[in-house]
Structure formats: C-alpha cells, structure tokens
Design goal:
The chain is of the alpha+beta class. The protein is 25% helix and 24% strand. Strands 1, 2, 3, 4, 5, 6, 7, 8, 9 and 10 form a ten-stranded mixed beta sheet that branches. It is globular and about 50 Å long.
C-alpha cells in the first residue's frame, strides 16, 4: 500500500476547502432529529445533515486496514470520473470495469484516474452495507417495512427503496455536473466539495451550457479544473452564490440533493461515501 490509512494520502485542503460561510454555502446544516421530524427529503431544497454516521460500524470496519481485511472480495465497478459524470453511473455500461475492493484500493486507487461509484449493491447484503446502520431516512423506511411502502400506492419512482451505492476515490476525483432524481450522499471518511445549481435556473439550456462549459472551448472539464479555470469567469460565481450553493461536506455529514439540481462533486483527500437515490432498485 502506498498509504496505510485514508488520512495519510494527499489532500488538497489548502486549495479546495473552505469554512462554509453562510454567504457561500447558503445551506441549512441540521441534526438528524430535525431532518426526520420535518421530513426534509420531501422538500425541494438541498440540506446538510450532521452526525449521520454516529453509531455506524463503518467508522471502524471501513478504515483502510479493516476494509481490506473484512471485505477484500466485495465486487465493485470502477471507471473514470469524467465518464461517470457525463453518462451517469447507471448508463456507464462497459465504461465500468468490475474489480474487487482489494484490487481497486491496492492496485488502482492511486495509480490511475479510476473511481469506484458502484450501484450494483442492494440491501440487505449480509454484512458490508449493514455497517451503515441505522440507515438514514427515508431509505430506512424500506428496510423496516417494504410491504407497507408498496401498499401505500406511492409511485415507484418516488419511493426510496433498496438502492445504496458505494463511492471510493482519491483526492480531487469526483463527478462533473450532472442531474438525477433526489438523492443523499453520506461521507464516512474524507470530505467533498459540492457545487449545486438551482433546478429552475438550468431549465434554460443556454444558461446551463454557459455554466458548465467554456463556450469558447466547449470541452467539459473535470471538477477540479472547472473550479480552477471557470468558476471565477463569466458570472459563474455570481450565479452559484445567488442561485446555488458551494459547500464542503465533512466526514459524518449527509448532503441531500433534490430532484433535478445540477451538481458537481470533488473529493478532498481519500474519500469513502455511501449514496441512495429515490426511485432506484438495488441490482443483483
């Protein structure tokens, strides 16, 4: 192993971290109790929920040493961040290479641009994902009583079901601007920089293209280079500071992204996280 722990690996805190000043992040940071009491997943506003991983066995079992000892043969998919961001993890198809957690962490993680974003996991899985108990709401509702959920008459594309994804990547990796159904993302180790852009603003396709690309050189940059080269040009920062959010998510926190919000994500240091998206089934 090049780095014995997640924390020993390079981390670009100096370049990409910030203190979530209210004028920059502009998001409420709430407790788990507030998240559940107010059913904030039913609203159309992003939010950060703190202390989500309190009590999770993953805090011990997913340290680098323990992850490799306990779950070396868990099969995951890996691909480049740019491919995953442009096509989405569900549509990446042959762009995803099947490997094991051990092979990825030891042989690929710090010697390539490969990034694990694996949605071919489902609940229950016999141990690995059970390290994330108690699951955040509303995903926990499915685990507790899936029959009641299906009998409620709720359309399946609005249900939070048995879908859970694993992401593992090194510093400055992450998905470029993309959109999907409502989802939550919980960081177990590391940190993530998020740029989120209001779903109503991006209904204007010209504005969306201007925000996500340099119209004079329309090549989609990875997240790190978008922040470095485009964020401060052509009113992008003004748009994000007034119609979006620029936030840093710490270990133990959950980011909730409503349906349709464009967002890009950047790892700060080696980062391990779990994700759930509304409407998706777990896949064998």
């Amino acid at each position: 192993l090049r780095y014995k722990t997640w924390e020993e690996a390079p981390a670009s805190y100096e370049e990409f971290d910030h203190d979530n000043d209210p004028s920059v992040c502009r998001l409420p940071i709430v407790t788990v109790e507030e998240w559940e009491k107010n059913k904030m997943w039913e609203k159309d506003s992003p939010v950060i929920v703190k202390n989500v991983t309190d009590g999770w066995k993953a805090l011990q079992h997913w340290s680098k040493e323990e992850l490799l000892r306990r779950y070396p043969d868990v099969v995951v998919g890996m691909g480049s961040s740019k491919e995953l961001g442009q096509t989405g993890p569900d549509q990446a198809g042959s762009a995803l290479t099947r490997t094991t957690i051990y092979d990825y962490v030891v042989n690929w993680m710090h010697s390539s641009n490969k990034y694990v974003f694996d949605r071919n996991l489902r609940l229950p899985d016999g141990g690995f994902l059970e390290d994330c108990h108690p699951y955040p709401m509303p995903t926990r509702m499915y685990e507790e009583d899936p029959d009641a959920l299906f009998e409620s008459g709720m359309p399946e594309n609005l249900m939070w079901k048995d879908h859970l994804a694993l992401t593992i990547g090194h510093d400055t990796q992450g998905l470029t601007f993309h959109r999907h159904n409502a989802a939550w993302n919980t960081v177990v180790f590391g940190a993530k920089r998020w740029i989120l852009y209001d779903a109503e603003r991006i209904a204007n396709i010209t504005r969306l293209k201007t925000m996500t690309r340099d119209i004079r050189n329309p090549i989609q940059l990875d997240t790190a280079n978008w922040i470095r080269k485009l964020y401060n040009k052509d009113d992008r920062k003004h748009e994000i500071r007034n119609y979006g959010h620029d936030c840093v998510q710490r270990a133990g926190e959950m980011m909730y992204v409503p349906r349709g919000w464009a967002h890009m994500v950047l790892n700060i240091g080696d980062t391990v996280a779990v994700v759930s998206e509304r409407g998706l089934d777990g896949v064998n």
